[in-house]
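Reopening this ticket.

The earlier resolution said the output was attached, but the attachment link was broken on my side. Pasting everything inline this time so it's all in one place.
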Amino acid sequence: MSEVDTSPALAGDPRDVLAVAAEKAGVPAAEVTLIRDGANVIYELTGGVVARVGPAGSTPAAARQIQASRWLADAGITVVRAVDDIDQPTVVGTRPVTWWVQLPDHRHATPGELGAVLRRLHALDVPQSPSFAVVDPFEGLHEAIDGGTTLPEDDRAWLRNLVKRLHGEYSALVPGLSRCVIHGDAWQGNVVVPTAGGDPVLLDLDHVGIGPREWDLVSLAVDHTDFARLTDSDYRAFVDAYGGYDMTAWSGYRTLATIRELRWTAFVLGKAKTSTEAAEQVRHRVACLRGEIEQPWSWSAF
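Inline output:
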């Protein structure tokens, strides 16, 4: 990790953070193009480098992303690569910046391609070193609900009770599940395939850790059962590529499905204070979770 600059003025605008980090790391940053403005702000630089500016206080998570990228590559998983000749992450104020090798032109993976990547990932031996954290599906949920004051207190109280119930159900399920290396946020957009050919590439390593394989499989399963975003044939291709395991037939499926949907709801709740569209969408999602709207649901992307 490069030396921390403690100036509080440098912890704000991500473009300013990037400029300071680039100078510190010796990365040319005269020409910068914004790729995505989210929790992590991502920029394309010249020379085939992509910079990822993390939120304040996320330096440990940024360091884990670098660690995961290098370990997974050594383990034979085709993964987005951190730039090797920079001491990473570069920290400016309280915000980490990580540096990545730019991907070639690509498309999102098909369900079958995602299933095949997850099958290889989950087959890896759990490493003794590096020591990956155990993935917690409930991380940040209480904070998101408590801070989500755009929702009526009745809805927030209901969400808190839902978290409590789901946590009890999940805690009862976990001892009977095998543990493996998981991605933690596995969906088709987090695996991309170069359009010119080549192996699918695993992206967005924020949540890589140790946990049950079902946590990686549930997102596509939910897309199929609750949202009808996947056809029967596409979901079957995912299941077949993974090795034939269909988690929707598992007795614990509904618990993990609802946890995943709750996390998707909490994500939009975090944007609701500054976005009218997000505020409307989170009310819709809560109504779905409360059983007031029949499935298949339709949720707008954020």
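Reporter confirms the inline version is readable. Residues 153-173 form the longest helix (21 residues). The chain has nine helices and ten strands.
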